[in-house]
Amino acid sequence: PIRGDGSPEEATTLSNLGFLYRSYGDGWKNRNLARESDRQKSEALKNAQTYYRDALNAYQNALMVIRKLGDRASESATLNNIAGLYLELNQPASALEAYELALTLYREGGDRASEATTRHNIGVAHARQGQYLEALASYEEALKITQTTGDRPTQASILRNIGSAYAKQGDYRR
What we know:
single chain; mainly alpha; 7 helices; 0% strand
């Protein structure tokens, strides 16, 4: 629930809090666990999940404020952040819902670069669910956009994921 004044500053603070919690979660998740016991590894991953849930809560609260303010650009960015956290929490179906909402806003705003990134992320969410044909369709759409915008790093990432999707299906000819 919204506890503040619904101002742009409140939305920014909540978004920053979400970013901070996600960073903490990433830190726990990415620790060098090679020399740690199974119990320590489990505890580190549990801590990461806790921070991801806290980040998700902060972003969802920020989203409520942002929507009241009518800030469509911040809304789409926050939806992308929420979707990414759902992926971290192994909830790809929820991630897809948030990505689709963000995609609609990016298309309405004519933000082709963010549209390509979001389509790519939609492909990742489909792949996490084993839906490789849907993933490939999203990757191909994202690739077409990046070819027109000239975003070579994103093209490389998309091509890597296309190769991975074909490999997961046992299609090594492509």
